[in-house]
Amino acid sequence: MKDSIRHKELADFLQTRRKRLSPQEAGLRSDSTRRRTPGLRREEVAALSGISLTWYTSLEQGREIRVSEQVLESLSRTLKLDKDERSYLFALAGQWLPGDPESDAGSNEAISPATKLILDELHRFPAYIVGRRWNIVAWNRIAAEVFGYSDDMNDRERNVVWRMFMMEEYRQLFVDWENIAKGQLAQFRSFYGKFADDPWYNNLVEQLLKSSKEFEMWWPQHEVIHSPEGRKELHHPRLGVLSMDYSSFSLAEDHSMIMTVFTPQAHTGTMEKLDRFFPARV
């Protein structure tokens, strides 16, 4: 969406939400006979949100103004926005939506039954889901067998970056570990930038800097990529070499959760190996 269109959409959205909210709903006492139009006045929204009337008026006029996360949170509370409306407000303002302020980020990353069913039905293809902290929150049976996931993994073992740099058995799965690890780190870095104020992220980075010489060497380089698709070659201890493409995409139910699906590359024998080891269900 172009900036000019985005600012116009933001202006229209703020106006509609202001006009639908009565003074009583906003906690104000008002004589309705003195109001020519329903809803709150601009000056009331500005005062309740702790911002100047001039600045708020500029927002409703669609002017190109950079809106901070704090102001967006104030407007969300003043206008009584629900979860979806709050998310839309942040998107229109060009801001990454922060975690729910009433809960610990990443503490409640459950997937829906429908998503779990989709994951399980991909029984021929390894697939897993990571949350906003890159912890594995769900996987299917074939992913467990290929990548070694299990229910008894601790918090660190569930983190895909920690696994890549700190778990020797996991490192040995990848034929070209160095390039794959560098690529994953660059992807993680782009994600990290959105949550750099999260103490959990900073703690993870500090631990990896102390524990992994490769991480310590590559992290200061600030390499950043966003690659939802790619190829990986694995050397499985029982299946041998597996050549697979992967595709990653956000879940509609929570855009900070990412599902990654691995599909065998054609003419490599990978599909036949997986089918022999994990027979197709009837």
TrEMBL record:
Kindly list the GO molecular function terms attached to this UniProt entry: DNA binding
Return the protein name: HTH cro/C1-type domain-containing protein
Q: Which CDD domains match?
A: HTH_XRE
Q: Could you tell me which residue ranges the HTH cro/C1-type domain spans? A: 13-86
